[in-house]
Amino acid sequence: MVANSYCHPKYKSVTFWDLPGIGSPNFKASEYLNEFNFQHYDFFVIMASERFKENHIMLAESIHSLNKKFYFVRSKVDRDVYESQSRRPKHFNEKNMLLSIREICVNSLKRAVSLDPYVFLVSSFQPQDFDFSLLLKTFEEQLPSHKRYVYLRALPNISSEAICMKVQALTTAVP
């Protein structure tokens, strides 16, 4: 119900902010941006699970109007896969199901902000699956060089892709 900051345990200059969900009972969507001073943040990760909602569109439009970047992360995709496979075991097609989730998110955001949005499908329990590595790589590629080094140093060794990104950055870094 309140904005919480989390300093990275190793890199005190890196702060993550966890903001309350837009549209929650204590925060009217129309007052959300002013309440949390969106100008203060470098970029945004809009997290959603289960369904894409109108509030996600409003949030994306508002962030875009401030000329800030945002990434849309659709979480709990592993659960969607499991439930879909349980409901329709004979007709289940994981690739088509994931494509459908992605298209709903992309098309809804495209109508709102008139650009190709960054949409990632992830699972906290299976970070090696789906788009988690792509999300990490996208963050790295889009950060300014002075922030990229700090980001890569702070990146946990949660996947082989993350480790490779760190090795490449550290071996090409100027001493």
UniProtKB/TrEMBL annotation:
SUPFAM superfamilies: P-loop containing nucleoside triphosphate hydrolases. Keywords: GTP-binding, Hydrolase, Nucleotide-binding. Pfam families: IIGP (PF05049). Residues 1-142 form the IRG-type G domain. The keyword Magnesium does not apply. Transmembrane segments: none annotated. Belongs to the TRAFAC class dynamin-like GTPase superfamily. IRG family. This is IRG-type G domain-containing protein. It comes from Staurois parvus.
